Amino acid sequence: MAAPGTGILGFGAYTPERVFTNDDWSRYVDTSDEWITTRTGIKRRRFAADGENTVDMAEQAARIALASAGLAADDVAELIVATDTPEVYAPDSASFLQHRLGVGEVPAYDLAGSGCAGFLLGLDLARARALAHGGKVLVVGVELISRLMDWEDRNTCVLFGDAAGAAVVAAGAAPIQILAATAGTDGSKADILMREVGGTRSPFTLERAEAREHLDIAFHGREVFREAVSRMTQASHEVLRAAGVDPSEIDLVVPHQANLRILNAVANALKLPEEKFFVEVEEYGNTGSASVPLALYHAHQQGRIRSGDTVLLTAFGAGFHWAAVLLRFDAPPGA
After folding, report:
1. Which candidate in 22, 53, 157, 256 is catalytic?
2. Active site residue 116
3. Closest alpha carbon to 285 in 150, 120, 145, 167
């Protein structure tokens, strides 16, 4: 439901310098630029440098978001990190980021396991926490999946890239209003997109490592496609109803950048022109929980978002989770 009086004070994003093309992938697996582009729309993605870790990327995006909001680190009252590629198994990446940023001894925690919907779920949670406590909540979505995927599985490895995105959420007046948010889960579909080895069901063992099972991502493409289109469309309708906004009033849709065919199908289902969708999957691939904040940051940088615009964010992820958030831009971040 709508939560009046909350908004985003500023946002930021970070991508590593290393560009990895489809032609680069053809040296590792049996694939080609044509094969990848036709099925996904992806041409390039960014991979973290050697020695560059999850928290390094998260810190870069977080500092840009804080600067955008005109805030210092000690203004942050709470820190949420959405990631499925943590710095270490335990403690959570938020603990390391809290120390790195110097935000003080505030609550800091990871939101893990929700895949590519993680940032929007974190944004909704931050909205509630800001309303409850009145502080400023820093939300970061970050993935360094290139180091944790199977480079020999052409069905999944070519999809992903590394990145981080962040936003500062607060109660009260804000240059970007959060008009409404919604989310949902269907655990009966958990097996269509899953990394199994490493948990209590299938603990990590030497034998599994030798068989490369710890890198396996269960990915049932056709089912994921159907669920993604259905749930992103559903979430979009729900958040629009909650805010009392007609689809025709949407100025821009910033969706999770998973696959160009999925985005085109969602546009068709929402009966919106594809021109209203911000698409950068060609350049960055699927960056998981960083995908939406990264695209939002770039859309604003490129002038695709103007004062007064109504912007729809929508995403899906493992779980099977989905979420949508509706924003209204009254002024540039930090203004």
Report:
1. 256
2. yes
3. 145
